[in-house]
């Protein structure tokens, strides 16, 4: 995500949402996702959503964005958290489809007292091989 400067004060937290284009030109199936905080000192948590319509816009002004109401939650990060890995073995593979042209939404929380500190959190997606498709129900 672009560098963001927290607006949390000593009395209030800062909640923002950042919309990022996935850049995908073909559907891919996520097998794992890892959130890497840009500044571990101030990132309390991050929720990662998929916006298949790619219409949700960043909300970094008001400070109370909890996440998109229509987004698909992929997973998240909190201090000490591990990457989100979908279970798989030779006979079973779980995952989530990230459709071409979708946006990724990061719902970020910065705690009180972090005003003026900067963050540039990253999300790494690990995909199954191209062409892999989830079974339709």
Commentary on this structure:
It contains no helices and 10 strands. The protein has 137 residues and is mostly beta strands. It has a single domain (4-127), classed as Jelly Rolls, CATH 2.60.120.310. The strands form 3 sheets. A 4-stranded antiparallel sheet has the order 2-8-4-5, with no helix packed on it. Strands 3, 6, 7 and 10 form a 4-stranded antiparallel sheet that branches. The mean pLDDT is 93.
Topology diagram in text:
Blueprint: E1 4-5, E2 14-21, E3 28-36, E4 45-51, E5 72-78, E6 84-85, E7 96-98, E8 103-110, E9 118-119, E10 122-127
Antiparallel strand pairs: 1-9, 2-8, 3-6, 3-7, 3-10, 4-5, 4-8
Structure described in brief:
With 137 residues, the chain is an all-beta fold. The chain is 0% helix and 39% strand.
